[in-house]
Amino acid sequence: MNIADLHSIFLEFPNVCTDTRKITENCIFFALKGDNFNGNKFASDALQKGAKYVVIDEKEYAESDAHILVDDVLKTIQELATYHRNQSSAKVISLTGSNGKTTTKELINVVLSKRYKTIATVGNLNNHIGVPLTLLSIQNDTEIAIVEMGANHQKEIEFLCGIAQPDFGYITNFGKAHLEGFGSEEGVIKGKSELYDYLLSHERNVFLNADDPIQLEKLGSYIKKFGFSTEKHQFYKIEFLGANPFVKIKAEDISINSQLIGSYNFTNCAVAVLIGKYFGVPMNDVKDAIESYIPENNRSQILEKNGHRVILDAYNANPTSMKAALENFKEIEGKHKIAFLGDMFELGETASKEHQNIADLAKQCDFADVYLIGENFNGVRTSMKTFVSFDSAATYLKEHPLKEEADLLIKGSRGMALERLLDFI
């Protein structure tokens, strides 16, 4: 079956599923494969649960007319997504970067949805499967699709651009993330800049942080760029008014008080303002959208727990974001501060050095106490508390509960799941 014919079926049954545990009535199930599973084996099960069609790539599982046999299921869903994207009149904004992608995506979405019918990447489904699923959620009335792109090695962003074919793009920043895959900070810059390469080669529009020298250098004299800056007059001016703890900014004499902590969220808010401005969203609506946005999913949340003020930033971590979080925690008003820091993953050969650097920085911050949790942090040279695992830290907290009310920072990579510490505070 060719993509055009499959797309006709998709338009009639526009719900896509890749997990038999989440089958919806009359959906199309794509039998993807992974290292430890073969979706073809679950195709008939998907039909029994209510799927209208199943797309498979192994002939032995083709049992009925409801089984659509293709050469490669993954390639098919990617090609279908691109075909669907090109049949739509929706504009596609893609964004990538080392830190802040999901928060930035959410902010752009709430701003643009004030005036347009938008769809956006759900959560952080930003890979070779997530991007197609986002594109396939474009509906007839969708005007703008905001597509997040993640990557941990070279050529991945280039590949995702080929699927999404963005009209606009933005890179949040270049930091020390996924060094194991990218090889170095220079590798990160090269890999993330594949979004720029696509946009420039296709003469598409680029949004940028003009205060980032890397972005400014990469885009050079390119005409179709639209940037924000705190000081460069040729770009849209957005002022940073502070973050104690919430980010406050100013644009066109209008102050915006976000519910996002940390100065590192300034650029995330600023680009949402810039993009809102570009697309003609009234500034009062931009202000309302950003001020109403409340972070969730363990991203820069502020919680109260047993008298403690908790900054929960446990969704992910790398050396760049960890450094920013510590510096911000040091600057916010508060007397008794305690930091709980979990291992940073995917750092490859640099892991030992980067964990030592963060431990040294945490020591310099002179907090009341610091807990370093995980195998990497357990190996650093320090006089601070170290724990080889979450369980050992939890056991310690049960035996030595926090007595004095304090401000707490909880940050670590997703695999550490440090939000579990809330049960022991």
Strand count, sense and closure of the main sheet? Answer: 7 strands, parallel
The CATH architecture category of the largest domain equals 3-Layer(aba) Sandwich
- Poorly predicted runs are none
- Number of helices, where a helix is a run of at least 4 consecutive DSSP H or I residues: 16
Residue share in β-strands:
15-25%
The tally of domains stands at 3
Rounded Rg: 23 Å
The neighbouring-strand order within the major sheet is 8-9-7-10-11-12-13
Mean pLDDT: 93
- The total strand number stands at 22
Protein name: UDP-N-acetylmuramoyl-tripeptide--D-alanyl-D-alanine ligase
Domain Mur ligase C-terminal: 299-378
GO cellular component, one term: cytoplasm
Domain Mur ligase N-terminal catalytic: 15-75
Structural features, described:
With 425 residues, this protein is of the alpha/beta class. The chain folds into 3 domains: 69 residues, Udp-n-acetylmuramoylalanyl-d-glutamate--2,6- Diaminopimelate Ligase, Chain: A, domain 1 (3-Layer(aba) Sandwich); 205 residues, UDP-N-acetylmuramoyl-L-alanine:D-glutamate ligase; 124 residues, Mur ligase, C-terminal domain (Protein-Tyrosine Phosphatase, Chain A), CATH 3.90.190.20. The protein is 35% helix and 22% strand. The chain contains 16 helices and 22 strands. The strands form 5 sheets. The chain has a 7-stranded parallel beta sheet with strand order 8-9-7-10-11-12-13, sandwiched between helices. A 6-stranded mixed beta sheet has the order 17-18-22-19-20-21. β17 and β18 form a beta hairpin. α6 crosses α9 and α13 packs parallel to α14. The longest helix is centred in the first third of the chain and has 15 residues. The radius of gyration is 23 Å and the shape is globular. It starts with a helix and ends in a 14-residue tail after the last strand.
